[in-house]
TrEMBL record, chain A:
CDD domains: ABC_PotA_N. Residues 6-236 form the ABC transporter domain. GO terms for molecular function: ATP binding. The complex is composed of two ATP-binding proteins (PotA), two transmembrane proteins (PotB and PotC) and a solute-binding protein (PotD). Keywords: ATP-binding, Cell membrane, Membrane, Nucleotide-binding, Translocase, Transport. The gene is potA. NCBIfam families: potA. This is Spermidine/putrescine import ATP-binding protein PotA. It comes from the Bacteria. The keyword Nucleotide-binding applies. Belongs to the ABC transporter superfamily. Spermidine/putrescine importer (TC 3.A.1.11.1) family. The keyword Nucleotide-binding applies.
From TrEMBL, chain B:
It is found in: Cell membrane. Keywords: Cell membrane, Membrane, Transmembrane, Transmembrane helix, Transport. The lineage of its organism: Bacteria, Bacillati, Bacillota, Bacilli, Lactobacillales. This is ABC transporter permease. SUPFAM superfamilies: MetI-like. Belongs to the binding-protein-dependent transport system permease family. CysTW subfamily.
Length: 370, 271
């Protein structure tokens, strides 16, 4: 196993009586794209500021390649930041901005010019060196902010919601570019965002945060398919979350029926929540259905119809279907056992991971049988 | 309809502007072309620019205004920077600005008391064994009191410039490896320079025409253009010459405004 580049150990941050971060543990491996994902005010930017050195942890340690970083001032850390509003210096040209950090190091002029040119080329703005910052568009400023950070050749690049000021189309383009850049440079990116689509699209690994705690970490697929609790399931993607009861291993009851599922290790009779993603639901005739619902309304989303429906117990359902339905129609819905994901109330990530380990192999067999 | 009527709101200030700003300036310019016998002449201007006394006086005014501005700046920037870092900074700022609410003459008389032969300053000098000195009616005391009076007018725009400075710039500078001093000299100071320029305008221009202080504190050793104007209007009754000096002062003010204005106006940031 490689040495982690950044570790946060039991980091707590308090402002007076206000606790921003609660005992956060985080490990970042070299060369990986990480995302801190959470709603505004969840503490994700505070983590970034603590790693960058703009803010101190009230308790706990920050390690950089195994060395304690807490007392190292921001200007002596081999970590650079791309700021939310870019923070490009308005009194300098593009090239002067990018060269700023290198000039401070008293590097020879020729070498600075060479590295600045290379960084500008990397962000596809090679000819923009002489321009004023105010003459750049938002997307160009964004690229210059990235160039200014990567020209320093940091081991870790921190990005604080860098795409939030861009329009939707440009944002998608930049997602590809950032991902591409990270893979070319091979350095660790720690990206902060409240946009779950962005996080799913770009990351190797996501940390989902809420109210100063990391709720779940894992690959985008893990987090999407197996959210740990109601908050994560609701925050990431669209989801139907239903109240139910565990009947035994791989057996769960909800919506007035019993179903086969792919979860185990939960005591029989325990109340649970069941997550079904709208795209995993298929419309069918009431006869072939696992559940019947009444269509309330539907929205055309271009590549699919977003259908809102209600079952006979009054639960709301959201279904994504390529074919439209009739309002008021009684339809059946089907799903496969592996489309169901069972969540226990108040289960912590460590317990969740341990439980998954106990039945993962048997689960694969069950899926094969069906 | 409402759009056409909005100019009505400008009437009170428009009248004020016309009666007390535009008319007096026009009168001064008009007067400056007449001699003592009310004959049209360019003599006042030729006299002004040929007289060593007037030119020296002009130079003196500019020099003292420069010194006052320099000392005010040297004191105000660090003060504004320090105040800006305090917890209750708006309260402290208010306390710094408070003296401007008191009439300048009252403050001048207060300093006469402090600097006089038996004043507080000399009592202190006697106490530490130096003995009483001539403090009042020296150039140094004139600059000291003028600087004291001007400081709040310099602190305020600098403080506001610091307040407007996005803290992300400071973080970005540190992030790129700048020390505290480098961050200040390469980022904070250049970005707050507009505040300094505004402060220079607010201090240098009034300092050019200070006249009561030159007499009360400086003992008329320094004759500034302000003093000269006062003398011409009230003592020698040569209104033409007084107006000429007034015109010179107005032009000097315009020059200072142009010099301290924004060299390259910033265009709107395209987004």
């Amino acid at each position: 196993m490689t040495q982690p580049i950044i570790e946060l150990k039991h980091v707590t941050k308090r402002y007076g009586t206000n606790t921003i971060l609660k005992n956060v543990d985080l490990t970042l491996e070299p060369g990986t794209f990480y995302t801190l994902l959470g709603p505004s005010g969840c503490g994700k930017t505070t983590i970034l500021r603590i790693i960058a050195g703009f803010s101190d942890a009230t308790e706990g340690d920050v390690l950089f390649a195994g060395k304690r970083l807490n007392k190292v001032p921001a200007n002596q850390r081999n970590i650079n930041t791309v700021f939310q509003e870019y923070a490009l210096f308005p009194h300098m040209t593009v090239a002067e901005n990018v060269a700023f950090g290198l000039t401070l190091k008293k590097m020879p002029k020729a070498e600075i010019a060479e590295r600045v040119a290379k960084a500008l080329k990397l962000v596809q703005l090679a000819d923009y060196g002489d321009r004023d910052i105010s003459a750049l568009s938002g997307g160009q400023q964004q690229r210059i902010a990235i160039a200014r950070a990567i020209v320093m050749q940091p081991k870790v690049l921190l990005l604080d919601e860098p795409l939030s000021a861009l329009d939707a189309k440009l944002r998608r383009e930049m997602q590809y570019e950032l991902r591409d850049l990270q893979q070319r440079l091979g350095i660790t990116f720690l990206f902060v965002t409240h946009d779950q689509e962005e996080a799913l699209a770009m990351s190797d690994e996501i940390f989902v945060m809420n109210q100063g705690e990391v709720l779940q970490s894992g690959t985008p697929e893990d987090i999407y398919d197996e959210p740990i609790n109601h908050f994560v399931a609701d925050f990431i993607g669209e989801s139907n979350i239903l109240q139910g009861k565990m009947l035994g291993d791989f057996q769960v009851a909800f919506g007035g029926h019993e179903f086969e599922c792919s979860d185990a290790g939960i005591p029989a009779g325990e109340p649970v929540e069941i997550v079904i993603r709208p795209e995993d639901l298929n419309l069918t005739t009431p006869e072939e259905a696992k559940l019947t619902v009444t269509i309330d309304t539907q929205l055309f989303r271009g590549n699919y119809y977003e259908i809102a429906a209600t079952d006979n117990l009054g639960n709301d359902w959201q279904i994504h279907s390529v074919n439209p339905a009739e309002d008021g129609e009684n339809v059946g819905i089907t799903f496969r056992p592996q489309d169901l994901h069972v969540m226990r109330f108040g289960e912590k990530e460590a317990e969740f991971d341990a439980r998954l380990e106990t039945y993962e192999e048997t689960e694969d067999e069950t899926i094969d049988e069906t | 309809m409402t759009k056409r009527r909005t100019w009505l709101y400008f009437i009170p200030y428009g009248l004020w502007l016309a009666l007390f700003v535009i008319a007096p300036v026009a009168l001064i310019i008009y007067q400056s072309f007449f001699d003592l016998g009310h004959h049209f002449t360019l003599g006042n201007y030729s006299a002004y620019f040929q007289s060593a006394t007037y030119l020296k006086m002009t130079l003196n005014s500019v020099w003292y205004a420069f010194l006052i501005t320099l000392f005010t700046g040297l004191i105000s920037y660090p003060t504004a920077y320090f105040l800006h870092g305090l917890k209750h900074r708006q309260l402290w700022l208010l306390l710094v600005i408070l003296p401007t609410w008191i009439n300048i003459l009252l403050k001048a008389y207060a300093f006469i008391g402090i600097f006089s032969q038996a004043g507080l300053a000399n009592q202190f000098l006697s106490f530490i064994g130096i003995g009483p000195q001539q403090i009042l009616f020296t150039n140094a005391s004139f600059i000291f009191v003028a600087t004291y009076i001007q400081i709040p007018f310099m602190i305020l725009p600098i403080f506001n410039a610091l307040d407007d400075l996005n803290p992300a710039f400071i973080n970005a500078s540190q992030d790129l490896g700048a020390s505290g001093w480098q961050t200040f000299s390469k980022v904070v100071f250049p970005l707050t320079l507009p505040g300094v320029k505004a402060g220079v305008q607010a201090v240098f221009i009034p300092s050019l025409s200070l006249f009561m202080l030159t007499r009360l504190i400086g003992g008329n050793k320094v004759i500034t253009l302000g003093t000269a104007i006062e003398e011409h209007f009230l003592t020698t009754m040569n209104w033409g010459m007084g107006s000429t000096i007034g015109v010179v002062l107005i032009i000097a003010m315009v020059v200072v405004m142009l010099l301290t204005g924004d060299q390259k106006p910033k265009g709107g940031t395209p987004r």
